[in-house]
Amino acid sequence: MGDRDSYVFADYGELMEVLLKRRDSFASEEEFKHYALSTVRRFVADLRYLGIEVSLRANYLERPASAYSSELKLGH
Asked: Residues 58, 4, 54, CA angle at the centre, nearest 5°?
């Protein structure tokens, strides 16, 4: 692995390491991102099955999360 990969693995947690090790098996970065997101969603569902609740904040790139508050989603 290159220097960048060594740096990445040194700075991310164990679960991210597992995802990143599979990165090269995807034809595009977009396919890898889809895989990573679906894997994390499944992991959260599996945790809930074990009685572990996880709260996640959606990432809306450059827009602050407050722009997507429940009030705005309800049309208030």
From this structure: 25
Q: Provide the angle, in degrees to the nearest 10, between the axes of the packed helices 14-21 and 3-11.
A: 150
Q: What token pair was written down for 59?
A: 């990432």
What is the DSSP annotation of 1-24?
--HHHHHHHHHS-HHHHHHHHTGG
Over the stretch 17-30, which tens digit does the pLDDT of each residue have?
Answer: 899 999 999 999 99
**Cβ of 33: how many Cβ atoms within 10 Å?**
12
Q: How far, in Å, are 24, 39, 69 from residue 43 at the CA level?
A: 21, 6, 25
What is the model's pLDDT at position 38?
A: 92
Residue with tokens 């220097």: 3
The verdict on pTM exceeding 0.70 is no
